[in-house]
Amino acid sequence: MAKPLVFGFRGQSVECAIEKVDRAKLYGYVDTEVQDEAGKPCELATLLGDGHSITGKGGSSIAYLSADGQWLTRAKLRPVDVHGQPITPVKSSFDAPITLGETATIDEFLSHNVHLIYQIVLAAENPELIAELKKGTIFRFPFSYRGGVEASPSFLLLASDGNPFMCVTTPTAIEFVGPTATAPVVVDDTATAEEEESFDFNMV
């Protein structure tokens, strides 16, 4: 049995299970099987960097090398920031209760790209939490499934059918371009007067 996710809400521990919502569940999926002339299924092969060698499934892998070319195991790797300073990894969100204290506006929520959606299945009814979500409250908190370098900003909110769900996101990098900004115009001075007069606007 999977370990439950626990939310801390107004002094209560709210246990729940999470069910990933993906396109296959929403729309179904199609499997494509490629066969050869004899009707036998084909297997994927990869052309290596030398342009001549072909390897089948499981024939290649990723290796970690030090700056001087020495072999490294994954256990020896340590995350650092852009300045080379060590980063303290975060623990899995399943290891401790997630406090539902910080809220977000709808604009703040929409300024994030959603890359994972989980339906929240409460282990026991919690009318107080559901009532708060029905008001339109959006809770914000960091979430990491297995633990790692950093947690993702995540949001808990209520669907139109009354079921709570969680969105795991990344902030959207938006650069605002003001209304006075104009695109550069490149003028081609090589066109002759005859070419300009014979231009047919039906071609546009």
Please tag this protein with its features:
28% strand, 204 residues, 12 strands, two-stranded antiparallel sheet, mainly beta
Question: How would you characterize the overall build of this protein?
Answer:
It is built from four helices and twelve strands. The chain is mainly beta and 204 residues long. It has a domain at 87-177. The protein has an eight-stranded mixed sheet. The longest helix has 8 residues, at 127-134. It is extended. 13% of the residues are buried.
Helices and strands in order:
Layout lengths: L4 E5 L2 E9 L2 H5 L18 E2 L6 E2 L8 E2 L5 E2 L25 E2 L3 E2 L1 H5 L1 E11 L4 H8 L3 E6 L8 E7 L5 E8 L21 H5 L7
Parallel strand pairs: 1-7
Antiparallel strand pairs: 1-2, 2-9, 3-4, 5-6, 8-10, 9-12, 10-11, 11-12
Please provide the ordered H/E string of secondary-structure elements.
EEHEEEEEEHEHEEEH
Work out the radius of gyration. Answer: 27 Å
The tally of strands reads 12
Count of helix runs? 4
Low-pLDDT runs of 5+ residues are 191-199
Walk across the major sheet and give the strand order. Answer: 7-1-2-9-12-11-10-8
Residues in helix, % = 10-25%
Q: What is the first-to-last residue Cα distance?
A: 63 Å
Shape: extended
Largest sheet, described in full? 8 strands, mixed
Structural class: mainly beta
Mean of the pLDDT scores? 85
Strand content: 25-35%
